[in-house]
Specification:
With about 300 residues, the chain is of the alpha+beta class. The radius of gyration is 23 Å and the shape is elongated. InterPro entries: PIH1/Kintoun_subfamily, PIH1_N, PIH1D1/2/3_CS-like.
């Protein structure tokens, strides 16, 4: 997809007829070049778009899980902790959870959590081991603590979260320690609050009625040199003003709503992005929203 995008750009520079006939494509490339200029400016002025916001939480003990690393065969402990500062996941019943786990893509349901850094501890045999702290919403923790199905679900989600973040491979033959709620000492964690990028309006057009639906979008990775950026181009026919758009960028998720109930887009992407440095720009002439997200890792 990236090769196709830049391939079209190259064709435009060598074929004058394409320049004359594909005006919309030219406008999109001009917008893309403008975004690249803004990226360069932001790197020269790193504080120009600094919207980082953190809260410090002191998690409470919850469950302690014992497992092993599949690669090193060393003991690994997972402290599943609780805090009211972590937002709860969407409400879900036991029957809905069973249906979700049996579905083809259970990853559609996400549990907000804070994954702490690894810390070295000693187990009951005074042997060295590694422990991780995972913090979830305290009300959801209580729900998991009362139902074995929810408990196994949150353990699995926590283990998979640690595997993805720290490139681990942990055994699924874990054990819940009955007489220990955590291993080591629980440390405070910094949790980033949600920050919505500022949407800049370029032009205006007449509004057109549209039924609420999922808009067409394209995900690109660029520029071809330098730090990678994930760029989402979202077509929003009928939207004339950025004031009707609500955009939320997460580390691996993008949520967009065009009010009143025109469009709704909720997607997960395979890249980890810097949500605080992300920004968006709406061109109401082409009715395309472009969201630029610096890539942290894949």
């Amino acid at each position: 997809q990236l090769n196709q995008f830049f391939g079209l750009a190259g064709a435009k520079m060598t074929d004058s007829s394409l320049l004359n006939s594909e005006l919309e494509l030219q406008q999109q490339e001009e917008l893309y070049q403008q975004l690249l200029s803004q990226i360069l400016e932001s790197k020269q002025k790193p504080d120009s778009r600094s919207h980082k916001s953190f809260i410090v939480i002191a998690p409470r003990p919850g469950l302690c899980i014992k497992t092993i690393s599949e690669t090193s065969k060393e003991k690994v402990f997972v402290n599943i902790c609780q805090s009211s500062s972590v937002p709860p996941p969407p409400e879900i019943s036991r029957d809905e959870l069973v249906e979700l786990l049996q579905s083809e893509d259970p990853s559609d349901y996400r549990v907000p959590m804070s994954l702490g850094m690894p810390h070295t501890e000693l187990d009951n045999s005074s042997q060295g081991c590694t422990a991780y702290d995972v913090v979830i919403n305290q009300d959801f923790f209580q729900k998991c603590n009362e139902d074995p199905l929810f408990q196994q679900f949150i353990i699995l989600v926590s283990v998979e979260g640690l595997e993805n973040k720290y490139n681990l491979e942990l055994s699924r033959e874990w054990k819940v320690l009955k007489n220990r709620k955590f291993l080591g000492s629980l440390s405070t964690q910094d949790i980033r609050t949600k920050v919505k990028p500022v949407i800049q309006e370029l032009h205006s057009q007449e509004n057109a009625d549209a039924a609420a639906k999922r808009p067409e979008f394209t995900l690109l990775v660029g520029p071809p040199v330098g730090a990678p950026e994930l760029i989402a181009e979202i077509k929003l026919p009928g939207v004339t003003s950025s004031r009707s758009l609500v955009l939320d960028v997460g580390e691996d998720r993008l949520v967009l709503t065009a009010r009143p109930s025109l469009y709704h887009l909720d997607i997960f992407h395979p890249l980890l992005v810097d949500q605080e440095s992300s920004f968006a720009q709406y061109n109401s002439s082409t009715q395309v929203l472009t969201v630029t997200m610096p890539v942290v890792s894949s």
